[in-house]
């Protein structure tokens, strides 16, 4: 958990091996001051845990769930089928198909079970953390202000560095 406050975001993944990708979601949540919890919840190896986690999430105060999975990538969709909370799916890159299998598994949800699908890998996890913070920010002005500040920093970085060429070496 990010702090002593109750978690607002659940960051879950299908396997411990997904952590190198999903840690980027956590890093963004920490940067923006969003309380979170994180754990492995496997759709295939621990389906009862998945159902319990998803069904209890709203009652425990979570406002959004970020779910990362690779390969068959059933975790985000199965979680979404068991909770009214927004679920953000992060496709984790697989060795065989470079994450395309994960992306398609998460994106191709049947009508009526919504999962917000992000990009494959680090960028997707980073943006999932940011999007989760934006959702939390709808009810938490401190988080909304942190998101606004982050976006202003990104804008200023571009404005401060308009020349795309590498800086000349100092001699």
Automatic annotation (TrEMBL):
The record's GO molecular-function terms, alphabetically, read: 5-(carboxyamino)imidazole ribonucleotide mutase activity; phosphoribosylaminoimidazole carboxylase activity
Q: Write down the superkingdom of origin.
A: Bacteria
What is the enzyme's main class?
Answer: isomerase
Keyword Transport (UniProt): no
Q: What keywords tag this UniProt record?
A: Isomerase, Lyase, Purine biosynthesis
Q: In which pathway does it act?
A: Purine metabolism; IMP biosynthesis via de novo pathway; 5-amino-1-(5-phospho-D-ribosyl)imidazole-4-carboxylate from 5-amino-1-(5-phospho-D-ribosyl)imidazole (N5-CAIR route): step 2/2
- Give the binding site residues for substrate: 15, 18, 45
Q: Which Gene3D superfamilies match?
A: 3.40.50.1970
Domain PurE, chain residue ranges per copy: 7-158
Write the Enzyme Commission number(s) for this entry.
5.4.99.18
Instruction: Give yes or no: UniProt keyword Isomerase.
Output: yes
Name the catalysed reactions.
Answer: 5-carboxyamino-1-(5-phospho-D-ribosyl)imidazole + H(+) = 5-amino-1-(5-phospho-D-ribosyl)imidazole-4-carboxylate
Matching HAMAP family: PurE_classI (MF_01929)
What does it do? Catalyzes the conversion of N5-carboxyaminoimidazole ribonucleotide (N5-CAIR) to 4-carboxy-5-aminoimidazole ribonucleotide (CAIR).
What PANTHER family does the annotation carry? PHOSPHORIBOSYLAMINOIMIDAZOLE CARBOXYLASE, PHOSPHORIBOSYLAMINOIMIDAZOLE CARBOXYLASE CATALYTIC SUBUNIT
Q: What does the sequence similarity comment in the record state about its family?
A: Belongs to the AIR carboxylase family. Class I subfamily.
Protein's recorded name: N5-carboxyaminoimidazole ribonucleotide mutase
Q: In which organism is this protein found?
A: Halomonas colorata
Which gene is transcribed and translated to give this protein?
purE
């Amino acid at each position: 958990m990010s702090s002593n406050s109750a978690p607002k975001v659940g960051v879950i993944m299908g396997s411990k091996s997904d952590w190198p990708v999903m840690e980027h979601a956590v890093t963004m949540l920490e940067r923006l001051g969003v309380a979170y919890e994180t754990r492995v919840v496997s759709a295939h190896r621990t389906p009862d845990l998945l159902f319990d986690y998803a069904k209890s999430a709203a009652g425990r105060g979570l406002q959004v769930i970020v779910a990362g999975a690779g390969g068959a990538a059933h975790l985000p969709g199965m979680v979404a089928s068991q909770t009214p909370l927004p679920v953000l799916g992060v496709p984790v890159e697989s060795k065989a198909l470079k994450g395309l299998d994960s992306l398609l598994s998460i994106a191709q949800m049947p009508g009526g079970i919504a999962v917000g699908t992000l990009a494959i890998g680090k960028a997707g996890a980073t943006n999932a953390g940011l999007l989760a913070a934006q959702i939390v920010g709808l009810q938490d002005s401190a988080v909304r202000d942190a998101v606004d500040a982050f976006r202003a920093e990104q804008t200023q970085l571009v404005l401060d560095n308009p020349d795309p060429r590498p800086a000349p070496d100092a001699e």
